[in-house]
Design a protein that fits this description.
The chain is α+β, with helices and mostly antiparallel strands and about 375 residues long. The chain has two domains: about 10-145, no CATH class; about 155-370, Rhomboid-like fold, CATH 1.20.1540.10. The protein contains 13 helices and ten strands. It has helices at about 35-45, 110-120, 120-130, 135-145, 155-160, 175-190, 195-205, 215, 225-245, 250-270, 280-295, 315-330, 340-370, and strands at about 10-15, 20, 30, 65-70, 80-85, 90-95, 100-105, 160-165, 300-305, 305-310. The strands form two sheets. Strands 1-2-3-7-6-5-4 form a seven-stranded antiparallel β-sheet, with helices on one face. A three-stranded antiparallel β-sheet has the order 8-9-10. A hairpin with a 6-residue loop joins β4 and β5. α10 crosses α11 and α11 packs antiparallel against α12. The longest helix has 30 residues, at about 340-370. The protein is elongated. The N and C termini lie far apart (about 85 Å).
């Protein structure tokens, strides 16, 4: 076979368990169908994420369909087509639609590995596009990302809720107490007062050890500062009004029950997993589900595209849960984001159900008293 760039004969090179065809002049590599993703995964532990994270940020290539390449497939000798790996990485690879092989210029396979390492969620997208000979996946992603509300992948990075307009009647002592408790426990772990590893082994939730103390204690542990800050921010944004609505005593039981149900929902689909699960996000998702039922007409001030918008709570929270479902599907398709999307979904469904029943009972009581 001949190099599609400089026309020199490609040489066979064995590397990391793969037999590759390499141009010794331009350092380009030819990957037969199915080889690229496997080789990029093998490189992940050898590359450093030195490039600035660009995923989800606007770029000129997003929205463009496949481009006609000027290069010919070294195996089939037909003109290849160019595509943007993972849709918006700006890593343009040449793909033969006949044999499925992919040509990478010098350094491009390392960039793919870096991209995977920076955000494993792109693996499912990149793999589907590499495998897609018709490129219909690119067209469908383009349609989604260029819709009036470009959800799926843009939303988590450019939409930030700031505060809501729902008034409360009393100080949310339980919500504040939960925020303080989670922060103190995390600080004790981070500053070495107690061993992080020992805490995880004893108090994290592991699906293999289903009915353990970790089912509850995991709700108060967090894996990093960003994990903690994000959860506590959403806790303060939504939980104060739910506590105000239910009262502090009922709210405690609701919060714990939501977290437990979220963990169990996650475990149902991961019964063989020994990976420890920590975080309050499942319980907070339950709070968000209840907020959607109790205060659907509330408005959430949201920073979006560098402007602040009033977004109805029912729309914002509905949009949020759709994102959790989509990310959960991507994880199931081969992603490894490290986020328990299923726990979010389980907690949210619990909050919807419990708040819906409670609101229905309250409505029936009010109607009965009116009679």
């Amino acid at each position: 076979m001949y190099c599609p760039v400089c026309r020199n004969v490609l040489r066979t090179v064995k590397s990391r368990g793969f037999v590759l065809d390499v141009c010794l002049t331009c350092k380009g590599i030819w990957f037969d169908d199915g080889e690229l993703i496997g080789f990029a995964k093998a490189l992940e532990n050898e590359v450093e994420p030195v490039e600035k994270l660009t995923l989800y940020k606007p770029r000129k290539a997003v929205g463009q369909k496949e481009l006609l390449s000027t290069r010919s497939c070294p195996r089939c000798n037909v003109t290849m087509k160019q595509f943007n790996y993972a849709y918006d990485s700006n890593i343009f690879l040449d793909r033969c639609l006949q044999c499925g092989g992919v040509w990478t210029d010098a350094g491009e396979i390392q960039r793919v590995a870096v991209h995977l390492k920076k955000d494993p969620r792109v693996q499912a997208i990149g793999e589907s596009l590499v495998k897609s000979r018709s490129f219909k996946d690119i067209d469908s992603l383009s349609a989604a990302l260029n819709s009036p509300m470009p959800y799926f992948f843009l939303a988590p990075r450019i939409i930030l809720p700031l505060y809501d307009d729902t008034p409360r009647q009393r100080i949310p002592f339980v919500t504040l107490g939960l925020i303080v408790l989670c922060t103190v426990l995390f600080s004790l772990m981070m500053f070495g007062v107690c061993s992080s590893q020992a805490c995880l082994e004893q108090f994290a939730f592991v699906p293999l050890n289903l009915f353990s103390i970790g089912l509850v204690t995991a709700l108060f542990l967090h894996g990093g500062w960003l994990h903690l800050i994000g959860n506590m921010f959403y806790m303060w944004l939504f939980a104060d009004n739910i506590e105000d609505r239910l009262g502090w005593f009922k709210f405690i039981f609701f919060y714990l029950a939501a977290g437990i149900c979220a963990n169990l929902f996650y475990a149902v689909f991961n019964l063989d997993s020994s990976t420890p699960l920590v975080g309050a996000s499942g319980a907070i998702a339950g709070v968000m589900g209840a907020y959607m039922v109790y205060f659907p007409g509330a408005h959430i001030k949201t920073l979006m595209f560098f402007r602040i918008f009033d977004i109805p709570a029912w729309f914002y929270l509905g949009f949020w849960i759709v994102l959790q479902v989509i990310n959960g599907i991507l994880d199931a398709a081969g992603g490894a984001s490290g986020v328990a999307w299923l726990a979010h979904i389980g907690g949210f469904l619990f909050g919807l159900l419990v708040a819906g029943i409670d609101k229905m009972i309250s409505t029936m009581r009010s109607a009965h008293q009116a009679q």
